[in-house]
Amino acid sequence: MAAAPQPEAPPRYDSAPSRWSDTRTRSIWQWQLVLAVAVAAIAVMVALLTPTTFTRVVFDAGVGLLILVSAATIAVPWHRFGRAAVALVPGLDIVAIGLMAAGSDGMLTILWVFPVAWFATYYTLPWLVAALSAIAVILTIDTLIAEVTPTRTLQVTVVLLSLVFIGLTIATGSRRTRAFSRLLSRQFTQLERTLRRVEAQEKRAMALFNSVDTALARVDRRGVIRSSNHAFQRLYSVDDATHPHPTAAVEYDAYRGSPLPPHDTMISRAARGELFEDRRIWLFDGEGRWHALDVTTSAVVSTADEREVTLLSVRDVTAAVTAQEEKRTMTSVVSHELRNPLTAIIGHVDLLLDRDGLPPDVIEKLTVVENAGQRMERLIASVLEKHKPTAPAAETVDLRRVAAASVDAFRPAAQNAQLTVDAALDADLFVSGDAFRLRQVLDNLIGNAVKYTPRGGHIRVDGRRVQGEVRLAISDSGIGMAAADIDRIYEPYFRAQSARDSGAPGTGLGMVITREIVEQHGGRLEFTSALGRGTTVVLHLAAHDEERTTP
Prior knowledge:
The chain is an alpha+beta fold. The chain is built from 15 helices and 13 strands. A six-stranded antiparallel sheet has the order 2-1-6-5-4-3. The protein is rod-shaped and about 165 Å long.
């Protein structure tokens, strides 16, 4: 016989009332309504086939009792009652079915399967025995009232044995189901505890992963960043742990050099499984800052659900590189500044030594000062020679090509900052000098324009030849400078107030180096700027008429 509708986890009616829920109430309704529907169908059939059956009082009483019990089942708030109260429902069903089957041919006794199944499913064995005993008593009374015959006795025996068999079978299956449910519940609890431990371990691992200063990322063969720590996310302007390539930051082959092609970026190379160690690149991040990076890749042990992943380790060595460059520049500047007063000291000592009539002890002391000054002058000269910039090579440089390459190098960073960059360069912009050093000059000037121009701004590069002179103008609509700051831009380590207020990083040495290179080429720089309205820098260099291809 098909089982009556049940909830996913059948409630035990011998459980504590505090554990019951609305699911239990719905289960009671379902069991009782199934029996009520069956009785209603039988009543209709009886009315059509044997209407005289309704003349029997006990039959009508049984039907009426079952209808009342069904109505009460729906109305009673079962979550407030215990298991004994619930047992009244199938118990009254047994009585109602007994009244309907009294004095009949015994066909209606099959309805006792419903309450027996109810007891067998949700109650313990003593409850089932009590229900079967009640049915046995009802059958015995009915048999004694009617007439004891061999056929009647056999019929009662068959009904009782059938109900006992059905009840025991269902009870056994229910016990096994409950045991299996408890087993699953224990296993689920163990799995839940294991999952919590794994999650806790993963959180600890991620906390350690994110606490490392080295930027780390796991890259798969599609170029997708499967996971990354906070250091990597900050460095590459990534919003979350997983991110598709490319990122908002732009990688360059050198400081203010050329952007790496998409297939040569570190993430792309890691996606191809390339292994390398301490590869130096420069990164222009989403906030307009330069970073010197040493990048290393290593293979990661693959798993069943994640194969062929490469670990990308990125160390930010900007501070060390900047400190080294600042040390070199400072040494050069300090040595240069010391040389001038030292020359004056030695010169005045020589003048004093040329005088006549000086006491011997004074001459001796002045000689000591002169010798010490000369030794210091030689030391300073050696330092200056060591840090002396390479003199510009004697070659013809196509400044148009150099400027166009610098503009192309900064265009990705400008686009990332939502800046427009236009270039109008004449064809005849040949000068004499060092193409590499002149590229440094243009990179610094164009880089400053990109750095100090807010989003939505405009940068323009114009190159013209005017009366034997090449003039290259870089204009921007950036933050500009006050008039008092323009006179100090060539002072070492000086930064305009507007630059400091913008929060953009800088050392204050860029313009010092730029002017030095320009003066080595016999040129000059011309600055015009207005606070909040932008800056224009014009590079003046002597034109060269010989047109040779620049290496």
